[in-house]
């Protein structure tokens, strides 16, 4: 026991220099505490001096004070000894106190210093706004949350299929599915609670196909009285690293004008879930009503952002429904952030069959205007087999665009998807290259 105690003290003393690194916010408070302890020590010293002077006739007390103050040692070395011992005891006590207070929030087996350092680094990370929906946006968020804590995910609310569509129709709330996926991706603990949030019921006619997270958000919306409050409370439950916001609070419907095979006329298709099922060529999409206003916190986040990332995700049914909210699009144009478009790795049946990266960009710009993006990020690894899908190639037109940046973004286990870690690293590299001397490793 004694050896373990001494070993812990020695390890704590060895870690002292790490705790005084710049940016951790510890040095200033340690100095503050030491100043208070010094004043407290002076107060006790005044009492002892007064006691020593008034009770000098008591030989036993004099002898005790003499040994307690180490008068047999030169005064300079006494000051060094008492000062060093005091600082060590104060620091060790503060460290153990903080360890006890933080114990409920520290992951088992993790180092307190490393977690605090990581938290401070992410807290000082760039303000990034991501725009999209579906699994593509969740993949992006899962990677970016390791680099910054200042994440805002703007999610489409045009979904009308599956569990979200049924809840939207029966309870009159905005579709929670994409928001649920993003909350799960941003969770600091993607273990049991997140698995529960993503759990999908089966076997019961009433619950078949519903996810627990969708039902949870729906219940919270009923309890809190608003969908946006329900999303905020869900984020607290999952301890998310960032925030998830709906692009608009209006009940909007996605409508497409499509060119179908063996037809010379364009067909109007209503509903996000019905567009890919038509297996035609999308000419144009729009929202009804087309005057839906953006959620105000989304506008604020975009205008304050250091970087805006659009995609990856379904071009017409996940990305464009956000960008078709007029004041949201105006905020992106007005923002001074670095604007990056992440192109999909594989085509999507019914939406982007045979599309190249250039086709994706042109489809976007035909709806939202040209030259909005500063960077167009494309995959250049085409070695794996992606089954019935086709690669989205960075063709000659794409490569001739000075905005194009190509990198290996493929998830080796699921080559038709982005790898969250690869994608996040490339995006952060692009950001730091464009922002100059700011270092990603700075705290």
Q: Could you characterize what this model shows?
A:
With 443 residues, this protein is of the alpha/beta class. The protein folds into 2 domains: 114 residues, no CATH class; 222 residues, Rossmann fold. The protein is built from 19 helices and 10 strands. The strands form 2 sheets. A 7-stranded parallel β-sheet has the order 3-2-1-7-8-9-10, sandwiched between helices. The protein has a 3-stranded antiparallel β-sheet with strand order 5-4-6, covered by helices on one side. Helix 7 packs parallel to helix 9, helix 7 packs across helix 19 and helix 9 runs parallel beside helix 12. The longest helix has 28 residues. The radius of gyration is 30 Å and the shape is elongated. The two termini are 37 Å apart. 36% of the residues are buried.
SS field, number of helical segments: 19
Low-pLDDT stretches are 439-443
What is the mean predicted local confidence, pLDDT?
84
The fraction of residues in strands falls at 5-15%
Counting DSSP E segments of at least 2 residues, the number of strands comes to: 10
Rounded to the nearest angstrom, the distance between the terminal CA atoms is 37 Å
Largest sheet: 7 strands, parallel
Structural class: alpha/beta
Shape: elongated
> How many domains make up the coordinates?
2
Order of SSEs, N→C? HHHHHHEHEHHHHHEEEHEHEHHEHEHEH
Q: Roughly what percent helix?
A: 40-55%
CATH architecture of the largest domain: 3-Layer(aba) Sandwich
CATH class of the largest domain: Alpha Beta
Quote the CATH topology of the largest domain: Rossmann fold
Radius of gyration: 30 Å
Largest sheet, spatial ordering of strands: 3-2-1-7-8-9-10
CATH-level-4 superfamily name of the largest domain: CofD-like domains
């Amino acid at each position: 026991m004694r050896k373990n105690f001494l070993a812990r003290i020695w390890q704590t003393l060895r870690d002292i220099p790490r705790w005084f690194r710049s940016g951790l916010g510890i040095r200033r408070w340690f100095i503050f505490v030491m100043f208070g302890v010094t004043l407290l020590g002076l107060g006790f010293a005044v009492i002892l001096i007064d006691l020593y002077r008034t009770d000098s006739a008591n030989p036993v007390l004099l002898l005790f004070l003499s040994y307690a103050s180490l008068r047999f040692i030169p005064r300079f070395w006494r000051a060094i000894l008492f000062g060093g011992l005091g600082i060590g005891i104060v620091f060790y006590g503060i460290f153990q106190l903080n360890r006890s207070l933080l114990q409920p929030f520290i992951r088992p087996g993790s180092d307190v210093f490393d977690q605090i350092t990581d938290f401070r680094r992410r807290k000082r990370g760039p303000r990034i706004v991501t725009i999209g929906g579906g699994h593509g946006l969740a993949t992006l968020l899962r990677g970016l949350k390791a680099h910054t804590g200042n994440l805002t995910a703007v999610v489409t609310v045009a979904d009308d299929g599956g569990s979200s569509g049924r809840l939207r129709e029966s309870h009159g709330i905005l579709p929670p599915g994409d928001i649920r996926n993003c909350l799960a991706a941003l969770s600091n603990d993607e273990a049991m609670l997140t698995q529960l949030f993503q759990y999908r019921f089966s076997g019961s006619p009433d619950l078949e196909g519903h996810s627990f997270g969708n039902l949870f958000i729906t219940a919270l919306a009923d309890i809190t009285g608003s969908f946006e409050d329900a999303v905020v409370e869900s984020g607290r439950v999952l301890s998310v690293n960032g925030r998830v916001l709906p692009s608009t609070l209006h009940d909007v419907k996605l409508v497409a004008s499509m060119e179908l095979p063996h037809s010379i006329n364009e067909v109007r298709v209503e509903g996000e879930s019905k567009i890919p099922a038509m297996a035609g060529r999308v000419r144009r999409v729009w929202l009804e009503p087309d005057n839906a206003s953006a959620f105000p916190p989304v506008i604020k986040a975009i205008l304050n952002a250091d970087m805006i990332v659009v995609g990856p995700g379904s071009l017409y049914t996940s990305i464009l429904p956000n960008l078709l909210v007029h004041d949201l699009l105006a905020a992106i144009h007005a923002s001074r952030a670095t604007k990056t478009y992440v192109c999909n790795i594989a085509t999507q049946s019914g939406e982007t069959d045979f599309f190249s990266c250039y086709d994706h960009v042109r489809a976007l710009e035909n709806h939202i205007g040209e030259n909005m993006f500063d960077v167009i990020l494309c995959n250049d690894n085409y070695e794996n087999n992606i089954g019935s899908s086709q690669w989205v190639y960075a063709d000659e037109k794409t490569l001739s665009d000075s905005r194009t940046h190509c990198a290996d973004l493929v998830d080796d286990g699921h080559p038709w998807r982005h790898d969250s870690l690869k994608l996040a690293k490339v995006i952060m590299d692009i950001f730091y290259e464009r922002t100059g001397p700011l270092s990603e490793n700075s705290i």
